[in-house]
Structure formats: structure tokens, C-alpha cells
Amino acid sequence: MSVRWSAWTTVLPVLGVLVLAATWKVDLPTVLVALVAAVLIGTVLAAVHHAEVVAHRVGEPFGSLVLAVAVTVIEVALIVTVMASGGPESASLARDTVFAAVMITTNGIVGISLLVGARRYGVTLFNAEGSGAALATVTTLATLSLVLPTFTTSQPGPEFSPSQLTFAALASLVLYGAFVINQTVRHRDFFLPVDDGGEDGDDENAHAEPPSGRAAKISLGLLMLSLVAVVGLAKVESPAIESAVDAAGFPPSFVGVVIALLVLMPESIAAVRAARRKRLQISLNLGYGSAIASIGLTIPAIALASIWLDGPLILGLGPTHMVLLALTVVVSMLTVVPGRATRLQGSVHLVLMAAFLFLAINP
Question: Which residues cross the membrane (predicted)?
Fold first, then answer.
């Protein structure tokens, strides 16, 4: 597996960054909005390709970790940038974005992966130990960072006091670091695909020679370039998205959901492709790993940025979102514990994802 400089997967990341530079903070006509959207989708596909090249070189679960962390770091930078220039109306941006990411990853990515894998192979197998540890980490991070602020009394409203925010940030970093060590060092085998001794799917890369170090480094650079373009172009498209959301009569907060969906497209496509190749554990690594990275890196970054950001920082979820989060945790536990799943579990998670989207439109 090599990188060819003439390939579309090489051209599109560069094109995406050039288009981003040309359209940043520019009012675009409808035709250019459509062209930017086309470039965005192509860049997402290129990002997935390069993520798979890197994953094949370094092996699992490092490949899933690279994609999840890369997307989240750029997403965090985007959140901080928007909050710094957005004024008081961006006070809940971090909460809305992180919660949307958690629901999209734990219900959307996990649900579609379970359904695709079960439709193709009947029953999908995965490591309950690794997936259970990831789910426990997601649950703890989400509760500490998004639920507790609604009930604390030191600050008025669903906010943390400075000391509470500092504790939440440090706890998030500790949990994220502990999970990464557990995933990549201490218990790496818990996060590797399960071999049931049967059909090995259609993963042509499973038995192929790993790419050279040079090819992997080039793909890593192009992956980073692609992700910068994806997140940036999603931001460029946001005015058009805001106009479409307003025209449809949806709440303004739904814009954050749409942008989160765009930003998480690379992980979503990579997860589905892994499920089709009978590598459901990789899909779960991507889903839960992205949720962990989203909270574990965003909350410390926002806590640090709050030193110079003006205005309140609203982190606490409302009652509807807390119910959805609690239901997601319970359903995810019942899905993960057996270490195997059918179409039913995938369908349940996708219904929860649909409920989140519907209530985001009709709160």
C-alpha cells in the first residue's frame, strides 16, 4: 500500500486546504456553497483512506486512536476559536458540541456499525472487556463534565465554579490518559478484533503487507491536512447551514448538531467499513474512543481558555438530554456486556440517535 502523488486521495486534502484558505470568512453564493460541500465530502473520503493506511502500518488499536485524537484536537481548536469570537451566545457551545459528539458516536457510529456487521454476518463479535472499559470511561467523563454542573450550587445556573471546573478538567485528563495507557499498553489485547475462526470478511488489507514507513508518514501528514480541511470547511459551510436551519424552522442549536455530524464523518465512514470487514471491535474503538477524546480533551481546553474568555460557561445538560444520556448508558451496557450483538442492538441504538436528532429539532 503506497501513496501516489497523482492519486485523488493525495490531491483532495491539498485542494481542501486551498479551498478553505480561499473561502474563509467569505460570503459565498449558492453555487460555491455546493462546490465547497463537494470538496468537503471528497476530503472526508481521503481522510478515511489515509487513516486506514496509518492504521495498517501501526496496527490496532493505535490506528483508531490516531483518527479519534486527530479529529478531536482540531474540533477543540474550532470550539475555542468560535467561543473566543462568538460572544455571550456561544456560552453553551462547548456543552452542545460535546453532547452531540457523545450521542453521535455512542448511538450513531456504534448503532450503524452493529447493524451493518449483523446484517452481513448474522452475529457480530467483539471484546466485552475493552468495550466495557471504554463505555465506563465515557459514562464517568460525561457525568462529571455535563451532568454535575446542573446540580452544583456554588455557581448560579448550570455552571461550574472555577475550582470545580479545574477539578473536572484534571479528572478528564487523568481518565483520558488512563484509558489510552490501558488501550495501548497494559491491555491492548482487549481492543483487538475478535477472531471467531470463521470467515474473515472481505478485508483485503488483513493479509496484505503493511505500507512502508515513508508511505505511512506521508499518509499521516495527509490525514492531518484532510482533517484541518474537513473541520475548516464545515465551519465555512456553517452560514449556509444556519440559513437552511432557520428556513426549516429548526432551533439555532441544531446548527451545532449538523456541524458535529460533518466533523465526525471520517470516523463514521471508517467505522462502517471496519464493520463490513468483520472488524467490529475497530468500529467500537472509533465510536467510544471518539467520545472519550471529545470530552477528555475539550473540557481541559475550555477550562484553560476560560481564563481569558469573557462571559459564562454553561456545561450542565437540561432534563431531556440527561434522560437521553442515561438511556444511552443503560442500553450501551446491555449491548456491550455479552460481547456479541445482532441487528436488534444496532436498531435500538439508531432509534436513540433518531430520538436525539428529533428532540434537537423539536426540543
Answer: 31-50, 62-86, 98-118, 130-151, 163-181, 215-234, 254-274, 286-308, 314-337, 344-361
